[in-house]
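Course assignment 3, question 2. Fill in each field.
Student: A.L.
Task: Predict the tertiary structure for the chain below.
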Amino acid sequence: MRTTVTLDPDVAAKLKSVARERGISFKQALNQAVRAGLGGQRRAARRFEQFAQPMGLRPGLDLDKALRLAAALEDEEIGRKLEVRK
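Answer field:
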């Protein structure tokens, strides 16, 4: 189908750039962008991976008491800052 579309200059420039990068025509770049925008061409979802990291906690600290831990750490930091001021 042939139709006339008026594109904003920034959109046209981006489409031309994409066409150049992919080695395809402007028309193909425009059609791919419209399909993607309309949901006709979906990218494969990447599998989510959770990476565990050691937290470096000191022995004796109970994570079930997170608020108590946060308060203790905050108190330590305030004490350290007060010591630096002396």
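Instructor remarks: The chain has a mean pLDDT of 86. The chain is about 55% helix and 0% strand.
Grade: pending
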